[in-house]
Amino acid sequence: MDQILTIVIPVFGLVGLGYAAAWTKILGAAASDALSEFVFVIAIPVLIFRIMANADLAGISAWRLWLAFFAAFALSWAAGTFVIRRFFGRDARGGLVGGLAAGYGNTTLVGLPLAIAAFGHDGSVPMALIIAVQLPVMMTVIAFLMVRAERQDGVNPIGPSRGALFRSIGENLVANPTIIGLFLGTLWRLSGIPLTGLVADLAGRIADVASTVALFALGMSLRKYGIRGHAWAGLALAALKLALMPALVLVLARLTGLPELPTKVTVIAAACPTGVTPFLVANRFKNGEGLASNTITLSTIFAVASVTFWLNAITWF
């Protein structure tokens, strides 16, 4: 009960307030867009910069953490693709959207605030390590799989050359604010210079509001997703995301001997609701927008119960 009152309700309560502000039109679409841009371009990158600049990586076992998380990610992705194609009759592009929706969690907007609320600054470091790998690796994998799915469906049989694809991926990574924050924070830590003075003060002021604004902005953005058409596929994918993936992470973390705190953070990262990436892919395909939208909305709603369960489950097993 204490975890619900001190962690889950404050985090998801901010999401609910953001949604209410958009639904009642107290804040309009322009405010939602501006808040989201502030979060993605400034607040979250600065928060991650501060985390990485001050990070103590001793005792985290990054390779075990990545193995547990991304192996579970791959299995959940495969399960989502199978379910959508086998039971809902979708094509390769729909299967890719479904697989992504079953595995790609909102570790940035939900995971970081949850980790900080539940485990303090120490919990933010493993979450940042997950984000550090998830962004570049998944951007690369998704780009290639999108081309493959289009070819399978006969939509774009030629597609871009590998050189053009790699160039596009590289340009997107170099320009990504979160990647820039990770890179600069890591460089600062490696320099051995303490993060103090004016830089620390400015970074701290922005980082301290990042979680609150990110959750509120997420709530506002949910208004434009909503439930579209038949929700059964979205429910199935939300179940895979919120139940299967964290269970797989917990099992793999125990099997690999991942230390306790990174295990807890990694399970919570896996229990995060579906992020916006599947919708962006669906929008690019013009295929599966409703599927992605339903999964994002439903998984965010049910994540209140899911996160509560997994916060307790990681102490039982």
What does the model show?
- With about 325 residues, the protein is mainly alpha-helical.
- It has a single domain, classed as Na+/H+ antiporter like fold (Up-down Bundle).
- About 80% of the residues lie in helices and about 0% in strands.
- It has twelve helices and no strands.
- It has helices at about 1-25, 30-55, 60-85, 90-105, 105-150, 160-175, 175-190, 195-220, 230-255, 260-270, 275-285, 290-315.
- Helix 1 crosses helix 5, helix 3 (about 60-85) packs across helix 5 (about 105-150) and helix 4 runs antiparallel to helix 11 (about 275-285).
- The longest helix is centred in the middle third of the chain and has 46 residues, at about 105-150.
- The radius of gyration is 19 Å and the shape is globular.
- The protein starts with a helix and ends with a helix.
- The relative contact order is 0.19.
- The mean pLDDT is about 90.
Characterize the overall form: globular
Give the uncertain stretches in residue-range form: none
Structural class: mainly alpha
CATH architecture verdict: Up-down Bundle
Order of helices and strands: HHHHHHHHHHHH
Distance between the termini: 19 Å
Number of strands: 0
Fraction in helix: over 70%
The average pLDDT value, as a whole number, equals 90
- Annotation field: number of helices: 12
* Rg, Cα atoms, Å: 19 Å
Query: Can you tell me the CATH class?
Result: Mainly Alpha
Number of domains: 1
- What is the CATH T-level topology? Na+/H+ antiporter like fold
What share of residues are in beta strands?
Answer: under 5%
Largest sheet: none
